[in-house]
Amino acid sequence: MQNKSNYYLKLGNKYLGLNNVELAIKNYLLALNENSENPLIYHNLGVCYLLKNDSKSALENFKKCIENGFETEETYYYYLKALFDSGNYDECLKIKVNEKFFIDMSLIKIKAAMKINKYNYAKNIVETLKMSGFSSQELNLMERIINSKNI
Length: 151
Description:
The chain is an all-alpha fold. The longest helix has 16 residues, at 2-17. Helices cover 74% and strands 0% of the residues. It comes from Marinitoga aeolica. TPR repeats lie at residues 5-38.
């Protein structure tokens, strides 16, 4: 029943807004029992699991979210984050960086590339960020590490 599902979804959103992740998850799961086709429920569950540092559960929910047609820039950012946090570094490199989360997604992809010794790939992203005018201590440190690998 969609009305019940929406009720639990809204309740989950309220609990998430109050930083009560456990009650948010409980209500999202109730919403999912009523309507397993709603991709927003999977998205919100994924966010909750990221907040709990449960990257495996987060990843599963973001995959289902995307499979059900919910392909927002935010969803892909969180999906990339869950991939990285769960050690799926090769998969991270396959995700397209979007405009809204360009810097954050690029930094995650640099780290993923470095984890699997793809320093040329990482160097290209660093150069793209620098050409876009971005600079930070973190980026400079990553660039020094990459350059120390003599590529």
